[in-house]
């Protein structure tokens, strides 16, 4: 059945000709009426996918501890922005704040929460998760920042920003576009490369391989860097992706925890593409920021003490739960730990990058741990 968004996209293609993949992705995810994120809570077992903070409280708690540490190194500014991009259900922020405790004395009093979110539905869930806290929402990252030092967190946010796909043919570089007609349905076609994409052409390339590029991510990440340069602070980005330039298509659609066709059920599937961390590192270096990583999520979380945290939680359950449910809960903590850190699960595919303007800072979590733990 044709979805309302599918109808809109066909009309645009009919009027203007084939559409670039970035515009398609952006409409499918954030169209103000029918976009995937606009009206739904996509997380968890009932939803389409699950993210690290939704798997376990340990994730947000460790990022809370990380933030306190970097705030202390920043000289404990009396006013600072704790900013999260694409906070989903607000779980990461909720766990991070709860975990601050006595160690971070002064942190909670100094922080102002800023959330970057386009979805009205998720904004409501974030409000509930952070009940009692003063929060300022923004649809976009404010160009100049928040007028104070910033600690910015983004987990599985950049993968939702649009990518485009380019190909080197025997006649030169082309961009993949999406066309539609009654007989064939949706199909990819090649169009000449627009001048705005010339900067994104890879230095080494193979003929007819697909290269994914993301001007939207580069722009978003550049504004993060600029905000940090202008106001001081640090940003922590966690996402699935790669650290060496790579060819290949990673654009994928997910519905109820299974992969599906990008053109099926448009507006009701999550669309994501792997993040090219190599480009992000290059941008940060070009702005003379201090760059940590990207390292694997597994090694980052282990460096931050996720094993010890898991033991503490198990100990708490042993002391406070009844023996029946305690066994189950302890089992779940072990499973969650594995899911977040194992190279066969999220540990290796997910990467973590930190940028800061202060060369004296030493961000936690980035020393290399030996392979395979
Ligand atoms: N960080 C959360 C959610 C990840 S899903 C977690 O780890 O669970 C992506 C989030 O980014 C959602 O909150 C979605 O609404 C938001 N989002 C997607 N595209 C966006 C955009 N262009 N601008 C702002 N928020 C966006």
Kindly list the characteristics that best describe this protein.
alpha/beta, 38% helix, binds S-adenosyl-L-homocysteine, 24% strand, 373 residues
Provide an overview of this structure.
With 373 residues, the protein is α/β, with parallel strands linked by helices. 38% of the residues lie in helices and 24% in strands. The strands form 3 sheets. Strands 2, 3, 4, 5, 10, 14, 15 and 16 form an 8-stranded mixed beta sheet that branches. Strand 3, helix 7 and strand 4 form a beta-alpha-beta unit. It is globular, with a radius of gyration of 21 Å. The termini are far apart. S-adenosyl-L-homocysteine binds next to helix 2 and helix 3.
Could you give the topology of this structure?
Elements: H1 4-16, E1 19-20, H2 21-30, H3 52-55, H4 57-73, E2 80-85, H5 91-100, H6 107-110, E3 111-116, H7 120-129, E4 135-138, E5 150-155, E6 164-169, E7 172-181, E8 185-192, E9 210-213, H8 215-231, E10 233-242, E11 252-255, E12 258-260, E13 270-272, E14 275-276, H9 277-286, E15 290-296, H10 297-303, H11 306-320, H12 323-341, H13 346-349, E16 350-356
Parallel strand pairs: 2-3, 2-5, 3-4, 5-10, 10-14
Antiparallel strand pairs: 1-7, 6-7, 6-9, 7-8, 10-16, 11-12, 11-13, 15-16
Helix pairs in contact: 4-5, 8-9, 11-12
Bound molecules: S-adenosyl-L-homocysteine.
């Amino acid at each position: 059945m044709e979805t309302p968004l599918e109808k809109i996209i066909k009309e645009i293609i009919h009027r203007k000709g084939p559409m670039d993949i970035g515009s398609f992705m952006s409409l499918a995810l954030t169209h103000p009426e029918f976009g995937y994120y606009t009206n739904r809570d996509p997380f968890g077992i009932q939803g389409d996918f699950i993210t690290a903070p939704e798997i376990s409280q340990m994730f947000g708690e460790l990022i809370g501890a990380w933030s306190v540490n970097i705030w202390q190194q920043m000289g404990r500014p009396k006013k600072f922005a704790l900013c999260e991009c694409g906070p989903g259900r607000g779980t990461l922020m909720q766990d991070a704040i709860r975990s601050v405790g006595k160690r971070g004395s002064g942190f909670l009093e100094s922080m102002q929460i800023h959330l970057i979110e386009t979805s009205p539905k998720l904004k409501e869930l974030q409000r509930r998760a952070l009940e009692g806290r003063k929060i300022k929402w923004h649809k976009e990252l404010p160009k100049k920042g928040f007028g104070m030092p910033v600690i910015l967190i983004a987990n599985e946010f950049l993968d939702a920003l649009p990518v485009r796909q380019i190909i080197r043919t025997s006649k030169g570089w082309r961009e993949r576009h999406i066309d539609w007609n009654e007989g064939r349905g949706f199909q990819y076609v090649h169009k000449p490369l627009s001048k705005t994409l010339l900067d994104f052409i890879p230095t080494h390339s193979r003929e007819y391989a697909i290269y994914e590029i993301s001007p939207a991510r580069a722009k978003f990440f550049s504004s993060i860097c600029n905000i940090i340069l202008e106001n001081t602070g640090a940003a922590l980005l966690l996402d699935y992706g790669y650290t060496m330039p790579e060819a290949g298509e990673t654009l994928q659609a997910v519905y109820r925890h299974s992969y599906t066709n990008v053109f099926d059920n448009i507006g009701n599937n999550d669309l994501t593409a792997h993040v090219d961390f190599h480009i992000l590192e290059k941008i940060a270096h070009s702005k003379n920021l201090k760059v940590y990583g990207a390292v694997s999520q597994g090694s980052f979380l282990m460096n931050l003490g996720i094993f010890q945290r898991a033991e503490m939680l198990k100990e708490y359950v042993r002391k406070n739960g009844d023996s029946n449910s305690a066994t189950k809960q302890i089992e779940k903590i072990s499973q969650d730990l594995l899911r977040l850190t194992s190279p066969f699960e999220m540990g290796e595919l997910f990467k973590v990058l930190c940028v800061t303007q202060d060369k004296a800072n030493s961000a936690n979590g980035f020393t290399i741990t030996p392979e395979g733990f």
